[in-house]
## 1
Amino acid sequence: MLVVPDPKVVRRLLTRYASLRIALAAGEGREGTRELEDVSYTLCITMGTRNVHEAIAAADTLLVARVRRSGLPAPDSEDGLSAVPSGRSVPVDGSCITR
């Protein structure tokens, strides 16, 4: 049986991931590196992938499919961020951190 993640959870993870990436790119919150690693790992586990880039792509596919099934126009997210942040992830190779 395939377990499909809750789209609201996926959206929150993507939003947090994007927010942390933006803060780190702007030189803010260096302590956020560890949190970004945690969010990246959680996103990978949630989406069943081994790579954060794959997790983001899978999350985007899930969210787009949900909107298409609903037949409604895509709503703006609660936070105003797009579903797929761009750029490299932490760690640099995009792999999920394993503990």
## 2
Amino acid sequence: MNIGDIPRGKLPEGEVVSSEEIENLKSQMKDMQLEIDILKETLTALKKTPASTRQYSKNMKRQ
């Protein structure tokens, strides 16, 4: 499907948003990006963990 083939309609009128709401949304975005970055680094660290350590952790959970 070629996007260029889709006719474009008019954009609907948007709502007026206060600068306070925009700042609140920006703050939420920063918090969420920080959380994403932390989770990515955690995954990277877990991938680097030696297999023997992961196996030890699995065995400890079974007991």
## 3
Amino acid sequence: MHLIAASDHGHVTVHARADLLETLEAAGLRPGTGGRDRCHVIRGQVGAIYLADPSGAVIRRTVGPMIERPWCGPVLTAGGAAYGIAAGSFARHLVFADHARSADILFSFRSDGLDPFGLVGRTLSADGAVGFGVHGGWHANEMSSVGILAGPLIEKRLRLASSLGHLRHCADSARSSGPFAMGNDDRSCARRDLYR
């Protein structure tokens, strides 16, 4: 029997609630209501805000209070080479999000510190329950994937790579900066060979 466990992303742990809607209301917007001051908010670990009036003045008025909040991570708006039209924001083309359907404001919740399990990657969230894992943001742990392979043929392949290619792969590890370049022991060298 062979087992393969894989994920397309990692998780971070919610440690506090973000007051996203309250912050937008304090900036003069009315999420989910009618009128010129309305906005539509798609919440998630990378959030999107579509404004009824997407003028530069409204975008700046909205982003200003957001970047002052402890929950706010990177913010993206339309802009120039590197920076967006609102102070404190980056240009959304940097993440290939400058297109006709893009939100007027894109943002991610801040992630940092150790969670209750001692793992790096805790976050604030407008939706996720405190203590639960969430994903979809820009923290390195959210973008990391997991790959676990186990079984007799895989173990045989690891042993073979470890014995036959030990010197070559350990020399490569001294130059490599990839995810498996963690040391010069047999095991790390075998893992690198398996994933090449």
